[in-house]
Amino acid sequence: MFDLLIKNANLPDGRSGIDIAVSGGKIAAVEAGIAAEAGEVIDATGRLVSPPFVDPHFHMDATLSLGLPRMNVSGTLLEGIQLWGELRPMLTKEALVERALRYCDLAVSQGLLYIRSHVDTSDPRLVTAEAMIEVRERVKPYIDLQLVAFPQDGYYRAADGVNSLERSLDMGLDIVGGIPHFERTMEEGGQSLAALCRIAAERGLPVDIHCDETDDPMSRHIERLAAETVRFGLQGRVAGSHLTSMHSMDNYYVSKLIPLMAEAKINVIPNPLINIMLQGRHDIYPKRRGMTRVKELLEAGLNVSFGHDCVMDPWYNMGSGDMLEVGHMAIHVAQMAGIEDKKKIFECLTVNSAKTMGIEGYGIEKGTKADFVILQARDAAEALRLKANRLFVIKGGKTIAKTAPRVSALFLDGRPETVDGAAYAPKP
User: Fold this and answer.
1) Which of 21, 174, 180, 321 is deepest in the core (most CB within 10 A)?
2) Do residues 66 and 136 share a domain?
3) Catalytic amino acids?
4) In 265-414, which ranges are continuous DSSP H helix?
5) Is the pTM of the predicted complex or chain greater than 0.85?
6) DSSP per-residue string spanning 207-240
7) Which of 326, 341, 357 is the last residue of a domain?
8) Left (φ > 0), alpha (ψ -120 to 50) or beta: where does 62 sit?
9) Number of domains the chain contains
10) What whole-number distance in Å separates Cα of residue 394 and Cα of residue 377?
11) For residue 291, what is the domain's CATH number?
12) Which residues form the Amidohydrolase domain (predicted)?
């Protein structure tokens, strides 16, 4: 007798006709033809059952603040930074918590159950840290939320930035962050990476750096980050987020850089939606895409995962908490439209991101957490094409969100009465 039995599921690895049995919040069996009773039975009807989506790069303290105190008229990164600087003194704990909880509701509806959020520590009040710590506790039953101490105005550049970051870690933030390309000089950027990696090593914490989020091919802080990672023995515990300057770097230099990153086991986190929107703003034509070299980094064996980064905030006035939208954009920008490419893109939204965040018990196999999403699509490629509906979102073996299938009614003589976009998938 199981708590939950999912019948006739397709899995991201290509297996089909699989049953998944759940007991005590864990997966008890994953195999075809499980003959057993269960408290609840869900027939997946040949649809994709995936582990939950994972967002390893987000800014929850800024989310849903679009229009406060005004709109970003130019739509640029620099005006977004200026806007956030205007809004920051007005932030209250209550408003921060309310907006973050609303976003978490949206995330659950999208099957997004693991999030790493950067928390701005540049304001010595640290109201952002206080608010996000409360949110982390309140959403713990349904979302695993990691918090990065992020000196958004620069570790050295911000007034009291050094002390504020240390205090935020003492308050309970989980990860050491930084933004070396926003320091006053390249030298200070490199020094900040050395200091931040030392702090992480001393405290036993991971590192996640906004690194080289620029079109400048000479912004090469990722090289220093890789070196400091090895120096402090942090291999596998360090993430380089964005890395957009790699899009513009000389190919010979990149041929040296990628092996250095692989040696340091750097986790790479591009943010396709934001990178394609904010980069290349000084270009006329040809216009650079801005996203880092995803395909080459994957081929070199680095762990690449995708972040959503922003939803309706000073930097990005779009977004819906949908990681499939992130993957959909990545396919186009990275020009990874092959069958195997799409499988890799889907892994960047799930298993790779789980590895970046160090999530234990993740996946669909016996003994893992009974957390998964049933999608209105046959397989991973179709889920990305359709940005498929999340029919069921399941946490610990219990349904926490449910969406009706997206089916349109037609009123055309001699044509079908309904249209289901998922039925248009090519025959396997």
Assistant:
1) 180
2) yes
3) 213
4) 272-278, 294-299, 323-333, 339-349, 351-357, 380-386
5) yes
6) EEEEE--SS-TT--HHHHHHHHHHHTT-TTSEEE
7) 357
8) alpha
9) 2
10) 17
11) 3.20.20.140
12) 40-399
For helices 339-349 and 323-333, the axis angle rounded to 10 degrees is: 140
C-alpha to C-alpha distance for 228 and 222, rounded to whole angstroms:
10
| pLDDT > 80? residue 428 | no
Q: What is the sign, positive or negative, of the torsion defined by CA atoms of 283, 289, 291, 297?
A: negative
Instruction: Mention every residue, 6+ apart, whose C-beta is less than 8 A from residue 205.
Output: 169, 174, 175, 176, 199
Residue 92, both tokens: 């209250």
Local confidence band at 191 (pLDDT 50, 70, 90 cut-offs): very high
Q: What are the DSSP calls for 237-252, one per residue?
A: SEEEEE-GGGGTS-HH
* Full domain range(s) for residue 14: 2-51+363-424
My answer on whether 380 and 286 are in the same domain is no
Q: Are residues 77 and 30 in the same domain?
A: no
Q: What is the pLDDT of residues 360-417, one digit of tens each?
A: 999 999 999 999 999 999 999 999 999 999 999 999 999 999 999 999 999 999 999 9
pLDDT in the model for residue 77 = 86
Which residue in the block uniquely carries the two structure tokens 């962050």? Answer: 177
